[in-house]
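Protein in question quoted for reference:
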Amino acid sequence: MQSNIEFTFDGQKMLALPGQSVGAALLAANQRTLRTTRFNENERGVFCGIGICFDCLVVINGVGNQRACLIEVTAGMNVQTQVGSHA
C-alpha cells in the first residue's frame, strides 16, 4: 500500500492519494475555492473536472494558469490560489 502524498495549498499542509489530481485532493480536503475572478473577486473552484472549463486554475510551483483537475499531485508540490488570470 502506498502512503499519502504531502503537498501545500496556500501554505497549509495537504494530503493526497497516489494518482490523485490536485483538484480531487483539494475537494477531498473540503477546499472549494481555487481561484478568484479578476473582476469582483468571485470565487471559483472545480466545475467540470475534465479540463474543459478554466474555473480550477491555480498556481503550481510558481507557474500560473494550471488546471487543478488535470495535474497529478506530486510530493512537495506548492499550490496557491490564483487571482484572476494572472499568477
Remarks:
- The helical segments are 22-28.
- The chain has a mean pLDDT of 93.
- Residues 22-28 form the longest helix (7 residues).
